[in-house]
Amino acid sequence: MNNIQLLIEKHNKITPEIEQCFLSIVDDFEEEIPRLRFLKSIYPGMQVNLPEKIRAVIINDISLLNIYKNTIIGFLSKGIPVIIISNRMIENIRDLKFYESLVKQNMNIFRLNWNKKKLSELRKYDNHNTLFIDQNLWDVCIRYIDQKIEIEVFEGNQLDVIMPELQNKITNLNEFKKLKKIFYDSFYTAIYALKNSFTTNEEIKALILRFEKYFNEVKYYGLEPELRSLIEEAIEVALTFEENTKMFNPDDNIFSNLVMKFEDKELFIPNNRNFTMIPTSETEEVIFTGYPYNENFGYYLLNTIFIDFIPNIKILCWPNEAQLTFNYIERRLQSGYFTDNIPSNNLFLDKYIIKSSDDVKNEINTLLSIVNNDFPVIDITFDQEENIEKFKMLKYEGYSNHSDIGSISTVKCDIVNFNNGYFMFLPKGSSILSEVETTDGKITIRKMMFKEMSVGIRIFKYVKDRTAYREISRHNSEVKTAFSKLELWKEALGKTYKDVNEDIVGLEKILKETKHKYHLSGGNPSRINIQRWLHDEEIIAPDKENIRIILYAANIQEIDSAIRELIISYRKVVSFTIKLSASIKKHIIKKIPEIDLTSENDFNINIFDSEIEVQSRVITALEKSQIEIDYRNTRKILC
After folding, report:
1. Which of 446, 451, 427 minimizes the C-alpha distance to 435?
2. Which residue has the higher pLDDT, 237 or 397?
3. CA angle 269–271–272, rounded 5-degree value
4. C-alpha–C-alpha distance, residues 270 and 287, integer Å
5. Who wins on pLDDT, 398 or 405?
6. Which of 184, 388, 456, 592 has a CA positioned 20 to 30 A from the CA of residue 209?
7. For residues 562 and 550, what is the distance between their CA atoms, to the nearest angstrom?
8. DSSP string spanning 471-500?
9. What is the mean pLDDT of residues 580-605?
């Protein structure tokens, strides 16, 4: 803090150096000093003076057009043009109308859609010796011009007819939560492995039998006969599955992914693989052996089309699977286009301009096609993609419990998805240690909130609860004793919690009544705070006034003396954990260049002769959500 004060006195404004120092302090100490979060919320940021002769402003996030509308108007009023660059990637079905609504709200803005016709015309002027300002961008344009997406249809299997209907019924099943969870984790996974592989194998059969075993235990306890019959039929077809009708060469560039570990064995899709093959921006061609498993979390197909611009993409499908895949891709291609609106003195010939929805359809027809479509598709009365969107929520069954409202400790969470099906529930307003690039291009780590995260960055998670810190502090007798003394407030709160039969509502009532009874002006025993005090093991102690309420409610004797003792212990522990946290971060940063962190590799660091395991995951998708999750299941890497 003294360093920050000296820098502010020197520069009389917030500089990048000051900002980095301030954010580093907040990242290191905000868990131990909650008031820093308030300070961060009112932090004004760097004061950046506009260049005297600014010629244009370029924005690379189109959503900022609405968020900073007045700022943009301000630039325009000064005669400064604002250029907004965007990609066409539409992940969620709820965002399919994004560009359409944006254009309707801003009809007068100039719009240029970089479609194949325009780029193909520009390509004529490239003699392969042309020097481009951004050669990498032009290379991407070439990949986009050459891109072909082909859906090849094969003779269907009964599962292609049964599964969409079965998924729909399971999704809308009001009860049988465990059945739904096992269906998602086992049977659904097995079916994807079958439809995207040559043949079955023992791992797939084991997953089917696992589901069948539980289904047989509950099938006569209220399941509708129609659903029961459909499940039995699906199990029978899956267990007798032998060979797939889809034909592909296993030596080709086949998309493959590690789906799960089951009974100490790894299951890949296709199941004849024992390694992953995720396309990159260098890949020239890829074959998907079906609509990808967990596409709604990993966006493997969408990334291939809209991010990596793979020139040759083929998806092998059964008939109904082909319908799902075609609709999924076509909707997003369509949603990414909008009509051009450019000045009349533009250099583009009229035939290259996108004027209508027909122009968009013609453009898409040059990209996306279905071949060998001689197999009948049944009439499905519901939208398969919307059904999958609802169905995927079964992945989160069991992480919250609404059976007894009084004892629930739930918080609203956003969802961070990682590679290979891992995910994390991140409570609103919480943060997690993530990699970040500094202004000078170096990689460091700091805590990020959900709104700051982006796909492709890595997060780091290590156990930093009171138990772990106590273990690490064993070499320091003074700190170890302080940890022991701090248990007083936790034990007192736990005692009162048990006295009300572990009812959060009842505990909140008692603590508020205690505050009123003893005329205590400070403290805030709100339900969400109580949940954190009870279940968040990273909390060392609440503030002094909340501790006072907790001790009074538990009838602790000589409270003033106990609080003085707790404050002394708290300061010693906080001083220790601050140094420990900073040391751990330095060790992680030092370790990053030494380890391949492209997958879910974990690694160990040594602090004060104690081994600390650090989990690392790459973010593949971010879901803004209102899902309510048991607090004990938050900020953990789950699968």
Report:
1. 446
2. 237
3. 125
4. 11
5. 398
6. 388
7. 12
8. HHGGG-HHHHHHHHHHHHHHHHHHHHHHHT
9. 77
Nearest 5°: CA angle at 137, between 136 and 143? 90
Residue 364 CA: distances (Å) to CA of 36, 308, 369, 372, 553: 51, 18, 9, 19, 68
Whether 443 contacts 624, CB under 8 Å: no
Task: Measure Cα distances from 343 to 108, 112, 125, 399 in Å.
Answer: 11, 10, 23, 55
Look up residue 253 and give its DSSP letter.
-
Task: Report d(CA 606, CA 434) in Å as an integer.
Answer: 20
Q: Which two tokens stand for residue 242?
A: 């032998």
257 touches 182 (CB < 8 A):
no
- CA-CA distance, 39 to 308, in Å (whole number)? 40
- Among candidates 419, 369, 425, 368, which has minimal Cα distance to 399? 425
Number of H helices, E strands in the chain: 24, 15
Number of C-beta neighbours around residue 573 at 10 A = 23
Q: What is the dihedral sign for C-alpha 385, 389, 395, 398?
A: negative
pLDDT, position 63 = 78
Q: What share of the chain is helix, strand, coil (3-state, %, to 5)?
A: 50, 15, 35
407 — pLDDT class (breaks 50, 70, 90) = very low
Following DSSP, what letter does each residue of 98-160 receive, concatenated?
A: HHHHHHHHTTTS-B----HHHHHHHHTT--S-PPPTTHHHHHHHHHHHT-EEEEEE----HHH
Give the confidence band of 314 by pLDDT, cuts at 50, 70, 90: very high
Report the alpha-carbon distance of residue 471 to residue 540 in Å, rounded.
14
State mean pLDDT over 166-171.
91
d(CA 586, CA 607): 11
Half-sphere exposure of 429 (CA within 13 A, CB side): 11
CA nearest to 183, candidates 195, 196, 172, 197? 172
Mean pLDDT of 288-308: 91
Q: Which of 245, 42, 285 is nearest to 159 (CA)?
A: 245
Query: pLDDT at residue 254 above 90?
Result: yes
